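Support reply, case 0932

Customer input (verbatim):
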Amino acid sequence: MKKIVLILICFAFIHNLIAQETATTCSEGKVKAYQSIKKKTRASNFANALMSQYDVHFYYLDIAAERNNTNVSGFTTIGATVTSASLDTFCFELNQALTLDSILYNNQSIPFVRNAGISYAILPTPALQNASISIQIFYKGNASITGGSAIGDGFSTGTSGAWGNQATWSLSEPYSAYEWFPCKQFLQDKADSAWVFVTTDNLNKVGSNGTLEGIDALPNNKVKYRWKTRYSIDYYLISVAIARYVEYTTYAHPASLPNDSIPIVNYVYNNPNTLPFLKPYLDSLGMMVEYFSDRLGLYPFYGEKYGHCMAPFSGGMEHQTMTSVGFLQNFSLNAHELMHQWFGDHVTCKTWKDIFINEGFASYGEYLAFEHFYNLSAAQAKMLDVHTNVLQDNNATVYFTDTTDVNRIFDSRLTYDKGSAVVHTLRYLLGDSLFFAGLKNFQTQYSFSTASIDDLHNSLQAFTGINLNDYFDQWIYGSGSPVFYGQYYSDGNNIYIKVNESTTSTATPLFKTPLEIRCLSASGDTIIKVDIAQNLHTFMIPSSKIITGIKIDPNNWILNKEGQFALNQTLSATHFEDNELGNQLTIYPNPVNDFVEINSNNSEKIDFTLMNNKGQKIQSGNFTKQIKLNTSHLNGGIYFIEMNSSKAKTVKKIVKL
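Our regenerated output:
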């Protein structure tokens, strides 16, 4: 069997040589340095098949690194469980520029073959299914691959332009963890725990995931930092940051963690002016942890810490329990990266096509923070900026399929801004109570695991009992946005509104949605809420107000373009009812007590919606020829039945006694 594997490896090596592919905000940082490499070579199907034969449960990095270069040396131990019937070749990814000195299996040196960024370690005897194995990989060299990750290089060094401090740091999302340590880059294979030990000059500090277990003094003015996390962690969230730091720790006290606290450990440049400048921003982070814990569930890594490591790059990266960040004085960025600890770290996207789980919700965390810590006006201003950006693309879509295009994965307009906008719409559809309770349930359901967009859909729908098919089809998988325009009139008895909907993209010809409409009036504005289920609707609302204009979606819940609403004095109850469909229908009795019957004199299917005098839906359905509606539960007053055939539409008024 081993000979067959070696032949296949050699074949794969030759094949790859022949067919080798050329490979300020959170979003801006994650794509900025990737411009030079649009796509990068990834593991082949053959290598992926081999890596699928085991499940990683532990990473142990013990490396040497400094703050002023990208050289690394040491070893990584990968603990895994065999998931196939047997495993005779342990495949992993590692930067081809690094020298692979040796590989140990059960303290025995074993042979290996390398093919660019893929390495194959040949086990002396096959490991059987469910066996626990430990592979220790020794390596050294310069880990930098320019433009290799979404947010710069996978392993970088640089000097802060603002503060003058040198730092070396890792940024592995989405495919660049392999640049500085051996790993398996499968999102759905989270390690159960990880250790990151770093030996460095004793003037440096090293930040990483989890809890600092200790700092060992070593010869030659060296120290070893020993970080350990006991929470499940995805490969790209393992991190290091090395610089001359000072440590500044504050604490969060979530209500759901009585008699205890969560340390917020910040590694800030040791420039004398840096910490005094940043201290007010750092002091507010505890309150933000407390707020998100209240809204989303207790901070997932409360048993370890939250924190930051400064590094000279644009934006931030949500490394689990210790965000790497270029600057800490940005309120939006701090909220965004903290929100990632729930959406991205605790629950991670199942594939990169599902990045909405990470970035859409993290971006909406910015809105939530503005709403809570500033005011609604500040949050609305932020959302309007988001809408303005997204509406520049008539075909803007959240979902995509090309996961080799890192620019598309982390597209600011589509993944971040439209992602944030449609989460806001989801909140509108569900209401605050169900929205936040549903997100807490989702966090519990997929705790320390991965989830897809469809998983989110199913979770929220099952929890809330609300059909969200239209929402996900339109806003996540669909393209563009709705455009609303129409006409209005009022006569002192009723307000008449005709709403037309077109869309910016032919791929999504209709957005079905509840819609708020502000009716402007000198005697005071009125907001009504109607359901848009087709491209043309007419509404009649009893009101003595004379309206002077219409404002669609005044609270900015929906990503939309608003067209003109023109005064049309011919809109009236007669206009609504005196049409071909209206003449074909009879409704009796009217006024009504317990039941009302609708009859049609043809056999065409009729869709109907029963609404109250505020335009709120009470019941809907369809019928042919005849239907009898139970009205016994309705309060006395005026109601409307809107009816639509394939060719016409009418609205009938009924009075409930």
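We compared this against your earlier run and they match. Two observations from our side: The longest strand covers residues 71-82. DSSP finds 14 helices and 36 strands in the chain. Please reopen the case if you see a mismatch on your end.
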